[in-house]
C-alpha cells in the first residue's frame, strides 16, 4: 500500500470515528460547557452565528467530501466541539506508526480549516486576515476553547498506557533515543508533551564558550531571515496590500508595554517552526541578562490549506502570522552583540507559553539554559537581532528539499553574530 493510500486509510478511520460520535441526535444531546458558551454567544450576537455558518459553508465548497470534511452545518459544529474538548491527541492506531504525528496535525488543522475561510463580511476590518478566527468575539471564544481543552489535557484521563505505546512506536518522537526523563513521571498528556530531557548532555550546546554562536532554541526547522527597515518593520508578500507586500511592525510584535519597541530598527528577524513531535521546551539561544519579560495575549489561530491531491490539511507558517498570535517576549542584553528578543510563539490549540520560575527581569543566563515550555500545539520561535549583531543564519538546507532548512535539535548551531563588538544603544519608547 502506498504512503498516500495508508494516509487515506488512517484519516478515514479517524473521521469515521468522529462521524459515529456526531451521529447521536444533535438536538437531544447534552452539550459541553464550552459549546454552550458558544451557543449563548450566538444567541446574544446572531451575527457571530451568521459568520460561523458562512465559514463552515465556505469550507464545504473548498472540500465538499464528507469523509474528510464531516462538519458542514452549525449543529454538526456544536457536536464536533463537544468531542474536541475531551479528545486525547491521537488515540487512533495508525499504520504505519509514523502516521501518528500526522494524524495529530490533521486533527488540529481540520479544527482550524473550518474557521480559516475568507469572508467578504470581514474584509477591511483591520484584522490579520478576513477569517472568523481573528474576529472578536469569536476569537475570544477560541481562546476559551483552547483553555478548556488544555484543562482536560492536564488531567489523568488524558493519558493512558495505550496512548504512550503509540508515541513510543513512532520514531519521530524520539522516545526510544534515551533523551527524556522516565515515562513514569507522565500522568497527563501535557506532562508528556512538555517532557524534560534526561540530562543536559543529550542536547549538547554548540560552541558553549563562544557568545557569537547562536544555537537553536528548540527542536525545530528554521524558516529564514527577514530584514527590519528603519521604521522598525519587516516586509513580506501578501496581506494588507502595499504593492503586493504587507508590513509588520516590530513594536507590535514586542507588545504595547515594551520599552524596546524601536531598538531593533535596521536589524533582522528569524523564526523557526516546532512540529507536534518535537521536544517542546525552549532554551536561551544566546547568553545574557533579561531586561524585559512580557506575555502578549492575542489570537490562538492557524492558517490552513486543503490539498485535494494528497487529501490532507496543511498548516501554513507564514511570516507575519506571528504578529497576531499569543506569545511571550524576552529581551536579553548580550553585552557585545546588543539586545536580542527571544519570542516563543504559541500556535493554534492549547499552545500555552510558560517561562521557568528563575527567568525574571535582571536574571542572567548562559546559552542553552532552559527558558520555558509550550503545551499542546505546534509552535514557533521568533528571534530579533539589532543591526550591530550582524546575525547570519548558518543552519544547513534540507538535502531532500533545497528550498527548506534541515531540522535542528535544541543546542545545534543556528546562526552567527558576525558584527563588530561595539557599544550598543538602547532606545526606549517610554
Q: What's the layout of helices and strands?
A:
Layout: H1 3-22, H2 33-44, H3 46-62, H4 74-84, H5 99-113, H6 138-153, H7 161-169, H8 189-193, E1 213-215, E2 221-227, E3 233-237, E4 245-249, H9 250-254, E5 268-274, E6 281-283, E7 288-296, E8 303-307, E9 312-316, E10 327-333, E11 339-346, E12 353-355, E13 364-365, E14 370-374, E15 379-385, E16 391-393, E17 397-398, E18 401-405, E19 413-417
Antiparallel strand pairs: 1-19, 2-5, 3-4, 5-15, 6-14, 7-10, 7-13, 8-9, 10-11, 11-15, 12-14, 16-19, 17-18
Tell me what you see in this structure.
- The protein has helices at 3-22, 33-44, 46-62, 74-84, 99-113, 138-153, 161-169, 189-193, 250-254, and strands at 213-215, 221-227, 233-237, 245-249, 268-274, 281-283, 288-296, 303-307, 312-316, 327-333, 339-346, 353-355, 364-365, 370-374, 379-385, 391-393, 397-398, 401-405, 413-417.
- The protein is α+β, with helices and mostly antiparallel strands and 430 residues long.
- Strand 17 (397-398) and strand 18 (401-405) form a beta hairpin.
- The longest helix is centred in the N-terminal third of the chain and has 20 residues, at 3-22.
- It is globular and about 65 Å long.
Amino acid at each position: 500500500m502506498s504512503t498516500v493510500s495508508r494516509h487515506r486509510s488512517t484519516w478515514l478511520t479517524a473521521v469515521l470515528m468522529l462521524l459515529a460520535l456526531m451521529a447521536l441526535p444533535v438536538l437531544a444531546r447534552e452539550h459541553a460547557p464550552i459549546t454552550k458558551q458558544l451557543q449563548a454567544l450566538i444567541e446574544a450576537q446572531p451575527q457571530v452565528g451568521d459568520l460561523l455558518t458562512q465559514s463552515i459553508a465556505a469550507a464545504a465548497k473548498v472540500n465538499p467530501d464528507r469523509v474528510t470534511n464531516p462538519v458542514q452545518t452549525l449543529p454538526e459544529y456544536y457536536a464536533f466541539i463537544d468531542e474536541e474538548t475531551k479528545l486525547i491527541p491521537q488515540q487512533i492506531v495508525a499504520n504505519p506508526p509514523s502516521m501518528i504525528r500526522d494524524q495529530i496535525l490533521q486533527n488540529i488543522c481540520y479544527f482550524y480549516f473550518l474557521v480559516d475561510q475568507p469572508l467578504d463580511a470581514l474584509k477591511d476590518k483591520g484584522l490579520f486576515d478576513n477569517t472568523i478566527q481573528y474576529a472578536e468575539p469569536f476569537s475570544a471564544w477560541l481562546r476559551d476553547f483552547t483553555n478548556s481543552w488544555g484543562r482536560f489535557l492536564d488531567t489523568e484521563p488524558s493519558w493512558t498506557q495505550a496512548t504512550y505505546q503509540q508515541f513510543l512506536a513512532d520514531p519521530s518522537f524520539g522516545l526510544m533515543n534515551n533523551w527524556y526523563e522516565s515515562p513514569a513521571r507522565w500522568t497527563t498528556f501535557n506532562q508528556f508533551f512538555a517532557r524534560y530531557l534526561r540530562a543536559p548532555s543529550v542536547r549538547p550546546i554548540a560552541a558553549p564558550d563562544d557568545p557569537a554562536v547562536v544555537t537553536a532554541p528548540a527542536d525545530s526547522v528554521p524558516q529564514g531571515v527577514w530584514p527590519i527597515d528603519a521604521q522598525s518593520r519587516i516586509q513580506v508578500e501578501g496581506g494588507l496590500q502595499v504593492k503586493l507586500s504587507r508590513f509588520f511592525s516590530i513594536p507590535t510584535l514586542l507588545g504595547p508595554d515594551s520599552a524596546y519597541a524601536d531598538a531593533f530598527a535596521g536589524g533582522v528577524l528569524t523564526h523557526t517552526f516546532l512540529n507536534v513531535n518535537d521536544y517542546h521546551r525552549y532554551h536561551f539561544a544566546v547568553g545574557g541578562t533579561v531586561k524585559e519579560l512580557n506575555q502578549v495575549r492575542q489570537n490562538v489561530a492557524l492558517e490552513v490549506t486543503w490539498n485535494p491531491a494528497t487529501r490532507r490539511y496543511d498548516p501554513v507558517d507564514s511570516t507575519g502570522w506571528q504578529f497576531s498570535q499569543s506569545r511571550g517576549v524576552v529581551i536579553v542584553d548580550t553585552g557585545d552583540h546588543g539586545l536580542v528578543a527571544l519570542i516563543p510563539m504559541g500556535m493554534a490549540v492549547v499552545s500555552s507559553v510558560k517561562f521557568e520560575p528563575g527567568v525574571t527581569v535582571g536574571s542572567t543566563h548562559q546559552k542553552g539554559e532552559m527558558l520555558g515550555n509550550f503545551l499542546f500545539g505546534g509552535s514557533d520561535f521568533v528571534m530579533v537581532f539589532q543591526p550591530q549583531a550582524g546575525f547570519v543564519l548558518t543552519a544547513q538546507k534540507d538535502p531532500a528539499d533545497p528550498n527548506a532548512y534541515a531540522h535542528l535539535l535544541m543546542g545545534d548551531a543556528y546562526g552567527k553574530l558576525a558584527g563588530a563588538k561595539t557599544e550598543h544603544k538602547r532606545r526606549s519608547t517610554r
